[in-house]
Hints:
Shape: elongated
Largest sheet: none
Mean pLDDT: 80
Distance between the termini: 60 Å
Order of helices and strands: HHHHHHHHHH
Number of helices: 10
Low-confidence stretches: 171-181
Amino acid sequence: MNEKTEELRDIFTSVTDGEETVTESQEDTRGSLEKDERTVEERLENVIAQMHERYGFETPLSEAELQTVARRYYERDGDDEIAADLEVEPQDVFEARCALHLVDEGDADEIDLVAIRERDEADATLAEEYDVDPKTIRRYRLVAAAKAESRAANDRYRDEFDSLLADSELASRMASDVREDGLEDATEGMETDVSF
């Protein structure tokens, strides 16, 4: 060893309390499709609670029923179907969806929601102008308000629902495929019907 190497060795041993070697312990962690340790149910409950706290919406539906509405929305079930299963009115399901920002283009058929939202006229006046009934105008206003609220929150809650409910089926399907097909690729083309 030359003089510089000896000097560096002395500095190293003084810094490491005289230990000759330093080995960092390594941990072999397993991958996961889901980063969050909480279950989808717990995360869904948390998102709904955050929205309830932030927006203070009122609904006759319980937290569990709101979770069901969100889950069934992503299963592409209609308000009537969800309402029948929950034994509530379809309007309650629709209003819950709006409160949870779970609205889409089908909720406002070819109508300018911005114009509806910005107008102060009574529902009956707008209904006459758009040639629909006042209940439909009220529905359009709820959709417009939900979209505006969602946009103001940068679609944060909608994205959370998407990642929880749209991706949860995909993640569970992928995880089951991995379990089922783990050795399939490794044994492909091999003769496995061997008699001993």
